[in-house]
Amino acid sequence: MDGPIWHTIAHLARRFTAHDDERGLDQAQQWTLQVLKIAEETGEASQAVIGVRGTNPRKGDSHTWRDVHAEVADVVITGLVALARMRPDDAAEFLHRQLAAKSGRFLGDTHC
User: Fold this and answer.
1) Contact 74, 48 (CB under 8 A)
2) Is the pLDDT of residue 103 over 70?
3) Whole-angstrom Cα distance, residue 32 to residue 25?
4) 91-107 vs 3-22: helix crossing angle, rounded to 10
5) pLDDT tens digits for range 10-30
6) CA angle at residue 91 from 22 to 82, to 5 degrees?
7) Alpha helices by DSSP H, the chain
8) What sign for the dihedral angle of Cα 14, 1, 44, 100?
9) How much is the pLDDT for 3?
10) Residue 55 DSSP SS3
11) Could you give the CA distance from residue 31 to residue 28 in angstroms, rounded to a whole number?
12) How far from the centroid of its chain's Cα atoms is residue 13's Cα?
């Protein structure tokens, strides 16, 4: 994995894998829990949007858009860590290929 972001993501992935290894979780269990963590972070981002909009009368205006930005960043980071845990040898390259394929259908082949 190249670049400073992927370097940090790889360190996080190894740390979480070591922690789960110490707990005796097999690879499938680790990957399952990591994907569930993405869902948890997405829920926190959703909760922040609800807080910005004040749609929960019990909580009122409980968040700011800055809070939403931080929660969305957490979703992205957690997703990158999940990908690095599942594909430690080629996560960055795999993501690049996926981005190229998916954006190519929408933007044409001039991007990525």
Assistant:
1) no
2) yes
3) 10
4) 120
5) 999 999 999 999 999 999 999
6) 45
7) 3-22, 27-53, 65-86, 91-107
8) negative
9) 81
10) coil
11) 5
12) 12
Q: DSSP assignment of 75-94, as one string?
A: HHHHHHHHHHHH-TTTHHHH
Which residues, 6 or more positions from 50, have their beta carbon under 8 angstroms from its beta carbon? 56, 59, 63
Contact 16, 46 (CB under 8 A): no
Residues in the chain: 112
- What is the CB-side half-sphere exposure of residue 6 using CA atoms within 13 A? 15
Q: Are 38 and 75 in contact (CB under 8 A)?
A: yes
Q: Read off the tokens for 102.
A: 């998916």
Residue showing tokens 């948890």: 40
- What's at 67, amino acid-wise? D
pLDDT in tens, 41-75: 999 999 999 999 999 999 999 999 999 999 999 99
